From TrEMBL:
<protein>
    <submittedName>
        <fullName>DNA-binding transcriptional MocR family regulator</fullName>
    </submittedName>
</protein>
<keyword id="KW-0238">DNA-binding</keyword>
<dbReference type="InterPro" id="IPR036390">
    <property type="entry name" value="WH_DNA-bd_sf"/>
</dbReference>
<dbReference type="GO" id="GO:0003700">
    <property type="term" value="F:DNA-binding transcription factor activity"/>
</dbReference>
<keyword id="KW-0804">Transcription</keyword>
<dbReference type="GO" id="GO:0003677">
    <property type="term" value="F:DNA binding"/>
</dbReference>
<comment type="similarity">
    <text>In the C-terminal section; belongs to the class-I pyridoxal-phosphate-dependent aminotransferase family.</text>
</comment>
<dbReference type="Pfam" id="PF00155">
    <property type="entry name" value="Aminotran_1_2"/>
</dbReference>
<dbReference type="Pfam" id="PF00392">
    <property type="entry name" value="GntR"/>
</dbReference>
<dbReference type="GO" id="GO:0030170">
    <property type="term" value="F:pyridoxal phosphate binding"/>
</dbReference>
<keyword id="KW-0805">Transcription regulation</keyword>
<keyword id="KW-0663">Pyridoxal phosphate</keyword>
<dbReference type="InterPro" id="IPR015424">
    <property type="entry name" value="PyrdxlP-dep_Trfase"/>
</dbReference>
<feature type="domain" description="HTH gntR-type">
    <location>
        <begin position="15"/>
        <end position="83"/>
    </location>
</feature>
<dbReference type="InterPro" id="IPR000524">
    <property type="entry name" value="Tscrpt_reg_HTH_GntR"/>
</dbReference>
<dbReference type="InterPro" id="IPR051446">
    <property type="entry name" value="HTH_trans_reg/aminotransferase"/>
</dbReference>
<dbReference type="InterPro" id="IPR036388">
    <property type="entry name" value="WH-like_DNA-bd_sf"/>
</dbReference>
Length: 464
């Protein structure tokens, strides 16, 4: 039936195929070719019939469901909805929409759990009740409330004893990390140590500050202390940049005993530690390096992954006696955060709204992770219910780059381990798969099922 009712002609159409498909769906429903209650083919079946990727079909189905054009029922399928009202839409969206038809499972994005409405409400409250003048740059007096909010948000159990005077605010965790590095690095040939497989931001920050970045191998518990000591003996090193609580891309959490060993090495070799905790969303059950060695550890965090990336609100908790230096560095770079952002974030945290958002974000992440584990659980994956990505170690017959190209051919974008190693490092045979909540669940499930199918047939894709 699908072959004769509404076959969109992709050859005569311009623009992304998912837009062509949704327009064809609208027309068929409007003129009655697809009557109320008509069951549509499953995503993969329709994709095969039309010669397009399943991700394209799933994206069009998602848009049609959001418009009220279609409805989905778990276990039954997708049907034309019982409505004839015209959706209040235009053919060409006023807001920019990605022209790519690929399903992008590379970036980690905070789920939309209604924080836009909450932040707008806060803006309304501040417009009536905030007495901070919006004229000059922020000062240590006007950002005090936001720094006090960070003290409440982070807590002494995680970062040890600290107060608002130990907090320096930044434009996100990456910016905070650069500030900390600027405080720590010195000399003509500064050296940064970090995990051999690590978030690319460490590499970029090192390059920006003309530092040599040395990778230290990890095991299932994180950085190996013996290899860290070996690197310190051979290369020296002024600072270790690490993510002990929630490591991207591997999801590893370093246990307390291992952290204590590394803290002792830091004392012995006069090493500073910068702990980037930006990916940690859930409640920590292990103290950070700032709590274990407060004289030499910097704790970095932000609201980007847990509340809203739009706020660009990051922070660092400096080692004892180092905050003033960090504040001078921050002021030299950008003077300070915009006062409206300071006021919004302080209000969100101190009223408990940020915590409620974080709880809903975690709920959304757990649901996506469970879906991924259900589909890919038979493969060698590392995952945590509080992290919106999984680490997939590939089976024999696949290489990371080859598997990425095979997924690309199916319209699915993922990250190879190559993107997480230093230029002279050896990448493990693995990929990271993000689980964004702005991708419809049927679309995500289809993508994961396609990946599972690819994993089982490596010899079919030797040409990649």
């Amino acid at each position: 039936m699908i072959d004769t009712i509404w076959p969109p002609d992709f050859e005569k159409s311009t623009g992304p195929k998912y837009i062509v498909l949704i327009q064809s769906l609208r027309g068929a429903v409007r003129n009655g070719q697809l009557p109320i209650g008509e069951k549509l083919p499953p995503v993969r079946e329709l994709a095969w019939q039309l010669g397009i990727t399943p991700g394209t079909v799933a994206r069009a189905y998602k848009m049609a469901v959001e418009e009220g054009l279609l409805e989905t029922t778990v276990g039954r399928g997708t049907f034309v909805a019982n409505t004839r009202s015209e959706p209040d839409l235009v053919s060409d969206p006023l807001l920019p929409i990605s022209q790519s038809e690929d399903l992008d499972l590379r970036p980690v994005r905070v789920p939309d759990v209604g924080q836009d409405r909450i932040i707008r409400n806060v803006l309304g409250i501040l417009s009536k009740g905030c007495h901070t003048p919006y004229v000059g740059c922020a000062t240590s007096a006007t950002d005090l409330l936001a720094r006090q909010a960070v003290v409440n948000w982070v807590g002494s159990d995680l970062a040890g004893r600290f107060g608002a005077d130990d907090v320096v605010l930044a434009m996100g965790a990456q910016n905070a990390s650069v500030i900390a590095l600027q405080c720590c690095l010195h000399g003509n040939a500064p050296t940064v140590l970090t995990e051999a497989v690590t978030f690319p931001g460490v590499r970029h920050a090192g390059r920006l500050l003309r530092a040599e970045v040395i990778g230290v191998e990890q095991d299932q518990h994180g950085l190996r202390p013996d290899l860290l000591e070996d690197a310190l003996r051979r290369h020296g090193g002024q600072v270790l940049v690490t993510s002990a609580q929630a490591h991207s891309p591997t999801t590893i959490q370093t246990p307390l005993e291992r952290r204590q060993e590394i803290a002792e090495l830091a004392r012995h070799y006069n090493l500073q530690i910068i702990e980037d905790d930006c990916h940690a969303i859930g409640t920590a059950d292990t103290p950070s390096y700032r709590a274990l060695c407060p004289d030499r550890a910097w704790y970095i965090g932000s609201l980007t992954k847990s509340v809203s990336a739009a706020l660009r609100f990051g922070y660092l908790v400096a080692p004892e006696g180092r905050a003033q230096t960090a504040r001078h560095v921050a002021q030299s770079n950008f003077y300070g955060l915009a006062q409206p952002i300071l006021d919004i974030c302080a209000e969100l945290i101190l009223t408990g709204q940020a915590e409620r958002i974080r709880e809903q974000v975690l709920k959304s992440i757990r649901s996506r992770v469970q879906l991924a584990v259900n589909v890919l659980g038979s493969w060698d994956i590392r995952w945590r219910p509080d992290l919106p990505f999984i680490w997939l170690r590939l089976p024999q017959g696949w290489r990371g780059s080859t598997f990425v190209r095979a997924c690309d051919a199916e319209g699915i974008r993922i990250k190879s381990a190559d993107e997480y190693v230093l230029s002279d490092g050896q990448a493990p045979n693995a990929v990271r798969i993000a689980l964004p909540s702005d991708v419809a669940e049927p679309e995500l499930r289809t993508a994961l099922e396609l990946m599972s199918d690819l994993l089982s047939k490596p010899h079919y894709h030797a040409e990649y």
